[in-house]
């Protein structure tokens, strides 16, 4: 996809909602698309990763979760949601959609999850 083909933030894009741009550590730029799907119940971190993968998507990184809070907060319950990032083998990061803060919690705790798709952009 080309930068010039992107819709305005909040508009539909490839079966989701365009919420902004992110750059991966390798320098590639990506459109972030929030999917409307939500798990039927709260899930532990590992199950949340598997749920997102079934959608051919992923849990957001911490930086993408911050972008979601900034540009799509209204599409989230005002509770915490898993990110894809871990702090060690027992803990993973989460994003609070009530106040925008981030913290860590034991991966075995059941929490909310949302999935994103990252679409690589070309010049």
Secondary structure blueprint with pairings:
Elements (H helix, E strand, L loop, with lengths): L11 E2 L2 E8 L5 E6 L10 H10 L7 H11 L7 E7 L4 E6 L5 E5 L9 E5 L3
Antiparallel strand pairs: 1-2, 2-3, 3-7, 4-5, 5-6
Q: Could you characterize the architecture of this molecule?
A:
The mean pLDDT is 97. The strands form two sheets. The chain has a four-stranded antiparallel β-sheet with strand order 1-2-3-7. It is built from two helices and seven strands; from the N terminus they run βββααββββ.
- What string gives the helices and strands in order? EEEHHEEEE
Strand content: 25-35%
* Radius of gyration, whole Å: 14 Å
Derived from helix and strand composition plus strand pairing, the structural class reads alpha+beta
The number of helices is: 2
First-to-last CA distance: 9 Å
**Shape type:** globular
Mean pLDDT: 97
Q: Let me know the number of strands.
A: 7
Largest sheet: 4 strands, antiparallel
What share of residues is helical? 10-25%
Stretches where pLDDT is under 50 for at least 5 consecutive residues are none
**Strand neighbour order, sheet with most strands:** 1-2-3-7
Question: Summarize this, please?
Answer:
The chain has 123 residues and is α+β, with helices and mostly antiparallel strands. The chain has helices spanning 45-54, 62-72; strands at 12-13, 16-23, 29-34, 80-86, 91-96, 102-106, 116-120.
Annotation keywords:
alpha+beta, four-stranded antiparallel β-sheet, three-stranded antiparallel β-sheet, 123 residues, 32% strand, 7 strands
């Amino acid at each position: 996809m080309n930068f010039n083909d992107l819709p305005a933030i909040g508009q539909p894009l490839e079966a989701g909602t365009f919420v902004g741009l992110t750059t991966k550590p390798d320098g590639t730029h990506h459109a972030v698309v929030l999917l409307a799907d939500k798990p039927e119940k709260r899930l532990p971190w590992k199950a949340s990763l598997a749920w997102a993968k079934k959608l051919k998507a992923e849990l957001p990184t911490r930086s993408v979760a911050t972008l979601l809070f900034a540009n799509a907060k209204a599409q989230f319950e005002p509770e915490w949601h898993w990110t894809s990032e871990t702090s060690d083998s027992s803990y993973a990061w989460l994003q609070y959609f009530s106040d925008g803060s981030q913290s860590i919690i034991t991966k075995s705790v059941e929490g909310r999850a949302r999935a994103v798709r990252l679409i690589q952009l070309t010049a």
